[in-house]
Amino acid sequence: MTELKNDRFLRALMRQPVDRTPVWMMRQAGRYLPEYRATRAKAGDFLSLCKNTELACEVTLQPLERYPLDAAILFSDILTIPDALGLGLYFETGEGPKFRHTIRSEADVAALPKMNAEVDLDYVMNAVSTIRRALNGRVPLIGFSGSPWTLATYMVEGGSSKDFREAKKLMYGQPEVMHRLLDHLADSVIDYLNGQIKAGAQAVQIFDTWGGVLSSWAYEEFSLAYMNKIVAGLIREHDGRRVPVILFTKNGGQWLESMADSGADALGLDWTTDIGNARARVGDRVALQGNMDPAMLYAPPARIRQEVADILRRYGTGSGHIFNLGHGITPDVDPANAGAFIEAVVELSSEYHR
């Protein structure tokens, strides 16, 4: 493989010295960019864009042409696994993802096929290898998956949910069925992420978008336990380098100590957790990624710069910080404001790495 010209992101994940804090954005290839909207229109719809190797590569690279980012992230969706398991993913305009089939019983779980990611999700693997070649060592490529709990919520609810009534009904009423589903999904995620790593992903992130809706004990039992299993099952060395793993639980700040015991290299933080407090709690066990409120990108550039400066100050000196938003960038953000955010990190962070 081509030598990596900018490994700042990977070094920070391993808490190794860097010249400045690396930065990337969740959903950095997305609807806030006019060039993305043009490519998506060319593809026809979101799923078609995900499944078109050349166009998925094109949109992955678009933000790198605008901004001095330190990583690219695979353009895909967290619900590719349930789709490959036969649930029939589709998107309703203005309503988000939906499934034609749901998982509500022991029989439904038993009927789920065993997934072979390199065959059943070959379009994702093709996208990873194509993007990696196109990057030509410019920055590292991040692969990703949804967490078992997050995937399960969509599969049980049949789409997104405000109260997760059906998922919690299954979890509390038939916990053994939910555990079987989560175990099946954990095996699928291991297979999926290892496939991405073999195809060229140089770091991977597990998105536990809905772990924060659980009670403390339920999070440990129904979400974190399965992410621990995934981390233990992943390829951690490839192409002569360590493959770092990032765990991100939205609204999961109360569980950082337990998450740090998972074996992951870094924890993602949403904006509700003070990054200085988080660093004090986890020490040097893991790197931290985050955590500016995405809504701050609606502010004037001067205010954005002030917020970046404050987060850098709160984290303090030394490596182990990857600057990011606390969740994905929203579609109606002005690209110039995203640029102001990234430029502020680039310009202000070097003093913390002398």
TrEMBL record:
Oligomeric and partner information: Homodimer.
Catalytic activity of the protein: uroporphyrinogen III + 4 H(+) = coproporphyrinogen III + 4 CO2
One GO term of the biological process aspect: protoporphyrinogen IX biosynthetic process from glutamate
InterPro entries: UROD/MetE-like_sf (IPR038071), Uroporphyrinogen_deCO2ase_HemE (IPR006361), Uroporphyrinogen_deCOase (IPR000257)
Protein name: Uroporphyrinogen decarboxylase
Residues bound to substrate: R27, Q28, A29, G30, R31, D77, Y154, T209, H327
Residue ranges annotated for the Uroporphyrinogen decarboxylase (URO-D) domain, each copy included: 22-31, 142-158
Primary role: Catalyzes the decarboxylation of four acetate groups of uroporphyrinogen-III to yield coproporphyrinogen-III.
Keyword Membrane: no
Enzyme Commission number: 4.1.1.37
GO cellular component, one term: cytosol
Record-marked site positions (Transition state stabilizer): D77
Family membership noted in the UniProt record: Belongs to the uroporphyrinogen decarboxylase family.
GO molecular function, one term: uroporphyrinogen decarboxylase activity
SUPFAM superfamilies the record matches: UROD/MetE-like (SSF51726)
Localization of this protein: Cytoplasm
